[in-house]
TrEMBL record:
UniProt record, GO biological process: bacterial-type flagellum assembly
Record organism: Oceanisphaera profunda
General function of this protein: Required for the efficient initiation of filament assembly.
Annotated Gene3D superfamilies: FlgN-like
The protein, known as: Flagellar biosynthesis protein FlgN
Length: 137
């Protein structure tokens, strides 16, 4: 495959990755976590394809032309990669904040429940354990 064709292929792959990343972000913002796994599978498949295209570009006999003749296209691809990384970081931060909120709410509910006492799990997060009915601590 020619360098030009590989660059066009990678551009379309990166544009699709950016679209999937934006969809992920929207799902997180709208709290539709159950719709994330299929999107994550698509993203993983696409990342594998992007790696394959990268390998083809790296092993191409005319790869030196990437830093001269095809420099504008390469720079455009780098910008797309940066956009994807930024979107992924924002989505990751939102997801972490959401998980922390859920964890805090769980802790509050556990504290309110009188038959439970608090302990820590392996990750250092608090969790309630049920002492059972009729036991007094």
């Amino acid at each position: 495959m020619s360098l030009a064709a590989l660059l066009v292929q990678q551009k379309s792959q990166l544009e699709l990755l950016l679209d999937i990343t934006q969809q992920e972000l929207e799902l997180i913002v709208h709290r539709k976590a159950l719709e994330l796994p299929p999107l994550a599978e698509q993203k993983q498949t696409l990342l594998t394809q992007i790696q394959s295209t990268d390998a083809e570009l790296a092993n191409h006999p005319e790869r030196e032309r990437l830093s001269s003749d095809y420099l504008p296209q390469v720079n455009s691809l780098r910008q797309l990669v940066e956009q994807c990384q930024e979107q992924s970081q924002v989505a990751e931060q939102l997801l972490e904040q959401s998980l922390n909120g859920v964890r805090q709410l769980g802790n509050i509910l556990s504290r309110l429940h009188e038959r439970q006492s608090m302990t820590y799990d392996q990750k250092g997060h608090t969790k309630g354990i049920n002492k059972g009915v009729g036991f007094k601590v």
